[in-house]
Amino acid sequence: MTHFNYENAARESITCNLCGRDCFVVMALRAASGLRVQTVLCKYCGFIYINPRITKEEYDRYYHSFYRSHRAEVKQGGDAGGNLEKNFVSSRRLGVALGKRLQPYMDGSGIALDVGSSTGGVLVGLREVFPKLSVKGIEPSSEESQYAKAHGIPTHTGLFENFIVGEGNNFPPAALILCVRSLNHLLDPRGFVRWCFEHLEENGHLLLEVKNFRHQCRRAGSFEAGVQIDHPFMFTPETLVDLVAANGFRVLYLDNDEFKTHAALIRQREEGLSLHHIRLIAEKTTLKSLVHLSKGTSRRLRSWKLRIQFARPFIRLYCFLFYAPRLSFVRNIFLRS
Questions:
Q1: Nearest to 203 by CA among 289, 97, 114, 117
Q2: Which pLDDT does position 165 carry in this prediction?
Q3: With a cut of 70, which residues of the chain have pLDDT below it?
Q4: Does residue 117 sit within a domain?
Q5: Model's pTM, two decimal places?
Q6: What is the 3-state secondary structure of 283-329?
Q7: Is residue 74 part of a domain?
Q8: In angstroms, rounded to a whole number, what is the distance separating the alpha carbons of residues 156 and 39?
Q9: Burial (CB count <10 Å: 0-12, 13-18, 19+), residue 285
Q10: Which of 11, 151, 215, 217 has the most neighbouring CB atoms within 10 Å?
């Protein structure tokens, strides 16, 4: 098997994608895989990202030829997403579950675009809830996009960053744009949200599901445990809401798994939803009517809070108190549902 040579891949230094500043504190020098990856936290707004990171051309090459084999190697063969059929089946269930969450907010007609659509399962499930939707996917993995096409989902193969300067220039207004378990992978999340605002029809909706990085670290008891090279950006509920609201959207629904009971998470998994994620539904507004924007003071305060929350002693303490098996009987007494 050919390996992706990450250590020798071309790199670039970047500024914070949320606030645009270049002031950060280094949080880790290794990823969960052991690779040398510098992860930083913005001192001004608290956004977490890899810096420096490999270039867009290197990421394109990585996703096209190495992504699933590398994930399987990191997880020692346990990458469930690499089994295309299982990926499709679980994603379809997720699409149905997310569609049901969307039902109170949209009539289910128009165009739905899934950015990072993988095998197309989410769109298939979504269309089961909203049969009138016209669906399209964007997926950088050629193997997964071919699987989606074979199952009736029109899919553009390539990075979203390349799509928006090509076919995406003339993409018609959509009723729904979704990015499910893929926002971490985008090289310009702020540019993505801005593009969504420009290409959604009036009162169109944005649906996001993304891993809660703080939850990942706390469950594992380590900051590095949540870092992987294919996640150039990492989100908490606070920074995700800020990113969306600052680009013209009104948040209608926010669901965070971080403080749910074990029983609630089991029910959620049975429903088909991912665990340990953040789910957000937002509506396109006009910038003039937008009132919820994080100001400088609140962003700096958030940055300090996150720096404390991600400090190694606090992560380890949280993991011990809330996830250590030896304390499960105590949690069962106080966290019954």
A1: 289
A2: 85
A3: 1-2, 71, 74-82, 287-295, 326-337
A4: yes
A5: 0.90
A6: EECCHHHCCCCCCHHHHHHHHHHHHHHCCHHHHHHHHHHHHCHHHHH
A7: no
A8: 31
A9: middle
A10: 217
Give DSSP secondary structure letters for 181-215: S-GGG-S-HHHHHHHHHHHEEEEEEEEEEEEBHHH
Find, among 15, 23, 14, the residue nearest to 300 by Cα. 23
In a domain, 78, yes or no: no
> How far apart are alpha carbons 77 and 224 in whole angstroms?
20
Q: Nearest to residue 56, comparing CAs of 161, 183, 143? A: 161
By C-alpha distance, which of 113, 115, 283 is closest to 188?
115
pLDDT of residue 2: 63
Q: Specify the DSSP class assigned to residue 234.
A: E
Q: Residue 337's pLDDT is what?
A: 43
In a 13 Å sphere around the CA of 20, the CA atoms on its Cβ side amount to 4
Indicate whether 309 belongs to any domain: no
Helix then strand then coil, in percent of the chain rounded to 5, is 45, 25, 35
Residue 259's pLDDT is what?
87
DSSP for 65-83? HTHHHHHHHHTTT--GGGS
Residue whose pair of structure tokens reads 């003071």 in the numeric block: 297
The beta-carbon contacts of 152-155 under 8 Å, at least 24 apart in sequence, are 152/120, 152/124, 153/117, 153/120, 153/123, 153/124, 155/117, 155/120
Q: What is the DSSP string of 147-179?
A: HHHHTT--EEES-HHHHTTTGGGGPPPEEEEEE
* pLDDT confidence of residue 289: 46
Extract the tokens encoding 290.
């937008």
Which has the closest alpha carbon to 181: 292, 304, 87, 277? 277
The total of structural domains in the chain comes to: 1
> Contact 105/205 with Cβ under 8 angstroms?
yes
* Nearest to 253, CA basis, from 209, 285, 289, 195: 209
Q: How far apart are CA 230 and CA 49, in angstroms?
A: 11
CATH number at residue 177: 3.40.50.150
Residue 96, domain extent: 83-293
- How many helical (H) and strand (E) elements, i.e. helices and strands, does the chain have? 13, 13
